From TrEMBL:
<dbReference type="InterPro" id="IPR036291">
    <property type="entry name" value="NAD(P)-bd_dom_sf"/>
</dbReference>
<dbReference type="GO" id="GO:0005811">
    <property type="term" value="C:lipid droplet"/>
</dbReference>
<dbReference type="Pfam" id="PF03435">
    <property type="entry name" value="Sacchrp_dh_NADP"/>
</dbReference>
<dbReference type="InterPro" id="IPR051276">
    <property type="entry name" value="Saccharopine_DH-like_oxidrdct"/>
</dbReference>
<dbReference type="GO" id="GO:0005739">
    <property type="term" value="C:mitochondrion"/>
</dbReference>
<dbReference type="GO" id="GO:0005886">
    <property type="term" value="C:plasma membrane"/>
</dbReference>
<dbReference type="GO" id="GO:0009247">
    <property type="term" value="P:glycolipid biosynthetic process"/>
</dbReference>
<comment type="similarity">
    <text>Belongs to the saccharopine dehydrogenase family.</text>
</comment>
<dbReference type="InterPro" id="IPR005097">
    <property type="entry name" value="Sacchrp_dh_NADP-bd"/>
</dbReference>
<protein>
    <recommendedName>
        <fullName>Saccharopine dehydrogenase NADP binding domain-containing protein</fullName>
    </recommendedName>
</protein>
<feature type="domain" description="Saccharopine dehydrogenase NADP binding">
    <location>
        <begin position="9"/>
        <end position="140"/>
    </location>
</feature>
Length: 403
């Protein structure tokens, strides 16, 4: 059955949506019919008009604007009936976005979103992966910069150098800020699930459990004895705040791709630290914050400090950037290094690029009959996704030594 729209985008008036709209206007083929939806048609129209006015040229057709209330099941059903691929950016996903996620799983369509809420995704996989497979749907969560970058980069790196073991991703530099929507989503997860320990381990997104894919240590152990990465000259590293979602995503890809990353593949994620003392202090602070996030008073303070609707300043966004290194051991035992520079704001600007690339690639694969089905990951769409990302302010270099 021919759908009315190839792509429908939700949440275009949000922080990331303001960057998704110009990307699609500049990069979608001119013969593609697409739509944007919002609770307020007037607000969406104003956003579209302002975006078009800022662009020197528009390659795509202008989208239709559809008024949709994502808390109304009839609106959701109409949306998924009319669309080949939904781009979900209206959160928080455990509440506002859940109805659209489950309807997409049942409707036999494509769906991508920015959801980085690890406990929620684990629940979604448990309850809807098989139903999505049966209906022929393809759902891909975690299409923001963080998970998309690491997940597709590892798939791409393995395609270049072969199987790997003992893989680590370390953020060498990360500059940016959080929107009120991101903070609200994070606090809501703790309110619903109690803590990220509800995940049950780094393999909780995987369709099978295997101790060889578990590469984590308790935070208190890192406080007492900070970790060092010998392949990076003994650099001190601390657990990354994104390790829950990213480790789960990468290890799910490993399982879904039939362990093509290698029989001894493990993965963990860290941030660079200046020295031993700084590493212990930061990890202790992270441990304390994790505990306090379980309390309603601390969540209220965070939400008051960064209420929904708050967006990073233009100056902050323009200055934001990130640098990562992924290191792993090849089959011959020698290390390989992949340095990744993200030139534009990784939280929102580059996240918009990532989710658009995922949506366009998924549309292409669903039309050709080659798309995976079920609740999958960005990496399952293929290593070419990271090639495409490198055309958009992301630079990667493979090296045999460090630095």
């Amino acid at each position: 059955m021919t759908k009315k729209y190839a792509i429908t985008v939700t949440g275009i008036t949000g922080t990331t949506g303001q960057y998704v709209l110009p990307y699609l206007l500049l990069n979608l083929n001119g013969d593609i019919n697409w739509a944007v939806c919002s609770r307020s048609k007037a607000k969406a129209q104003a956003q579209l008009d302002a975006t078009v006015a800022d662009l020197t040229a528009v390659h795509a057709k202008l989208p239709d604007i559809v008024e949709v209330d994502l808390t109304n099941q009839q609106d959701i059903n109409r949306l998924v009936t009319d669309t080949e691929v939904v781009v979900g950016m209206a959160g928080p996903f455990p509440s506002t976005g859940y109805g659209l996620q489950t309807a997409s799983a049942e409707a036999g369509i494509g769906y991508v979103d920015l959801c980085g809420d690890a406990p929620h995704i684990a629940k979604l996989i448990r309850e809807y992966h098989e139903r999505a497979e049966t209906s022929g749907s393809t759902l891909i969560n975690a299409c923001g910069t963080s998970s998309f970058l690491q997940d597709t980069a590892i798939r791409w790196l393995v395609s270049k150098v072969g199987p790997l073991s003992d893989v680590r991703s370390i953020a060498l530099e990360m500059l940016g800020s959080l929107s009120g929507g991101t903070v609200n989503s994070m606090t809501l997860n703790y309110q619903i699930y109690g803590s990220y320990s509800a995940l049950g381990g780094p393999s909780s997104f995987s369709s099978e459990r295997n101790d060889t894919t578990t590469a984590t240590t308790k935070l208190w152990d890192y406080v007492k004895k900070p970790a060092k990465e010998p392949r990076l000259g003994g650099m001190y590293v601390v657990p990354s705040m994104t390790q829950s979602i990213n480790t789960c995503t990468v290890l799910r890809s490993y399982t879904l791709l039939n362990r093509v990353y290698g029989p001894n593949f493990t993965y963990a994620e860290y941030d660079k630290s200046r020295n031993r003392v700084a590493a212990s202090v930061w990890t202790f602070a992270l441990k304390c914050m994790t505990g306090m996030m379980r309390t309603s008073w601390f969540r209220r303070i965070l939400t008051a400090f960064r209420p929904p609707g708050t967006v990073p300043s233009k100056r902050t966004t323009e200055a934001a950037h990130a640098t990562f290194v992924i290191v792993g051991n090849k089959l011959d035992g020698n290390p390989v290094y992949m340095k990744i520079n993200v030139a534009k704001d990784p939280m929102y600007v580059t996240a918009a690029t990532c989710i658009c690339l995922a949506a366009i690639e998924l549309l292409k694969q669903r039309r050709s009959g080659t798309a995976p089905s079920g609740i999958v990951t960005p990496a399952t769409l293929g290593p070419q996704l990271f090639d495409q990302l490198q055309e958009h302010n992301v630079a990667a270099e493979i090296k045999s030594s460090w630095p």
